[in-house]
Write a structure and sequence with these properties.
about 280 residues; alpha/beta; 6-stranded mixed β-sheet; 4-stranded parallel β-sheet
Amino acid sequence: MSKIHIVTDSTADLKEDIISKYNLHVVPLTIQIEGKTYLDRVDLEPESFLELMEKSKELPKSSQPAPGVFKELYDSLGGNGDKIISIHMTGGMSGTVESARTAAELSNSDVTVIDSRYIAHALGFQVIEAAEMAMAGESVEKIVARVEEIRKNTKLFVVVDTLDNLVKGGRIGKGRAMVGSFLKIKPIASLDGGEYTPVAKARSHKQAVQYLLNDIKANTAGKVVKGIGIAHAGGLAMAEPLRRQLEEAGYSNIKFDYTTPVISTHTGIGAIGFMYYTD
């Protein structure tokens, strides 16, 4: 009987124990900073990257894996007739999923490529449930249907602490950034739909945390919370109080970790991502 392999990329913010437990295949993106190129989470870890980015005069650049990297993996995993489900970060922020699709077309293996429309733990939610179902012997069709259901029931917010990287990345203009910095505004954006969409503004870390708490309480009433994740780019001034207050409110099993350098490049130092999904 053929097996189903689950492939994802390094923006899923998965720890080594989870990768090993579910036999996941993680393809790293690359980061260029200060004239050097690194493989995300392979030869560049999140904390050391934040130090490099803080000292760098230029915004680091991230690149998706080349189709050839995916094809080599797909050929290896599916050469014996095994099937592959490849779940990746939102196509709204990276060409990674398109690179995977190109590779799937070039490979003779049976590959299903999915745009998660999310990043970080919200991508991880889909990957882990897909892996659990694959290990239980479920079909590709059932796994894909469940992944789509998870995606529909997921919410993800990004709160940035400084507007510098949003300006350098062309997401907001310098004028707005100057006003925002003067007023100490912390923009809150949603990633629902796969794209960075501003939804609110907070004047302090405390306000930002309260907004996120209010949202999860309002949107999970009467539902089963299947997963919660907090990913940060050194943003412990928001991340720690948010985790503490979530636990005090009765939420548990909260995934908490530094986010990947690829995402930190977009958000800047001090940012957090907050995500959850329900049934």
